[in-house]
Amino acid sequence: MTTKTVETADGLELRVDDIGPRDARPIVFVHGLAQDRTAFGPVVASLAADLRCVVFDVRGHGDSSAPEGREPYTDGARFANDVDAVVRGLELRAPILVPWSYGGAVVGDYLRHHGSAAVGGILLVAAAVRIGRSAGAFFGSAMMDNARGLVSNDPAVYEASARAFVHGCSRAPNQSYAAERVSAMQRVPAHVRRALLSRDEDYVAAYANGDFPIGAIQGDDDRVVLPSLADHLHEQAPRTVLTRLPGVGHLPFLEAPEAFERALRSVVAAARA
């Protein structure tokens, strides 16, 4: 594994891990709200045997820059440029983008502002392809019941909400993994969380109008991003290969790793050169 720093168009630094053979198909994982690049650790370790796995901390998260203010986190063009900076900075050719949860918005920003010409394919993982008040019907109890606490300035309130949120991501949480996720959440400043959750965006058209291979994997028991959002995307983009997983929550790559890998490799097999 090589850890690198990529500079963004507006002068921030993004921390990036580059794992696996450099001549293999690149897979770029984009984590969710208040998480970091280690969220995909268990599955990346397996995939990196024959795929080039790239994971990075989204601005405001993990070891990446977290500037003050709202605009660095509400301007979609900045998220778009961050993904572009990773793709260009590591010279990734036709990468497969794998956005999880809020990562669906980050990749949606990329498609909206940079198009899909450089994309080999996309696998959406319990992805928030719509966010904000207008999309409230697509979010479940683990998100909605904890939303107020997730933007709190009070460390104790935030920690309690972070724990409830993480444990709501799975019907049978892996305790070690859950503790790691809560620790990652505690590193994200309140101003970042508030700005991210203040956005109101619909990226369905950005995904539906592309010509890249696209898959979506969704747990039927997801209490963060409801399965109805994946169904909505599939209705608008029938070319989407949708995999629904009974008994699985918001963490398909952890709860159903074999099904996740099959879905990813299916997109890899269909990907553009």
Can you describe what's shown?
This protein has 273 residues and is α/β, with parallel strands linked by helices. It has a single domain (2-270), classed as 3-Layer(aba) Sandwich (Rossmann fold), CATH 3.40.50.1820. The protein has helices spanning 41-47, 71-74, 76-89, 103-114, 141-144, 147-150, 155-167, 175-186, 190-198, 204-208, 227-236, 252-255, 257-270, and strands at residues 2-7, 13-19, 26-30, 52-56, 96-99, 121-125, 130-131, 201-202, 214-219, 241-245. It has an 8-stranded mixed sheet with strand order 1-2-4-3-5-6-9-10, with helices on both faces. A two-stranded antiparallel sheet has the order 7-8. The model has no long low-confidence stretch (mean pLDDT 97).
Keyphrases for this structure?
273 residues, alpha/beta, 8-stranded mixed β-sheet, two-stranded antiparallel ribbon, 13 helices, 17% strand
Could you give a quick summary of the protein structure above?
By secondary structure, this protein is of the alpha/beta class. Helices cover 41% and strands 17% of the residues.
Strand content: 15-25%
CATH class: Alpha Beta
Largest sheet entry: 8 strands, mixed
Biggest sheet strand line-up: 1-2-4-3-5-6-9-10
Global outline: globular
Number of helices: 13
Average pLDDT over all residues: 97
Please give the number of β-strands: 10
Q: End-to-end span in angstroms? A: 25 Å
Radius of gyration: 17 Å
Uncertain segments are: none
- How would you classify the helix and strand content by structural class? alpha/beta
What's the helical proportion of residues?
Answer: 40-55%
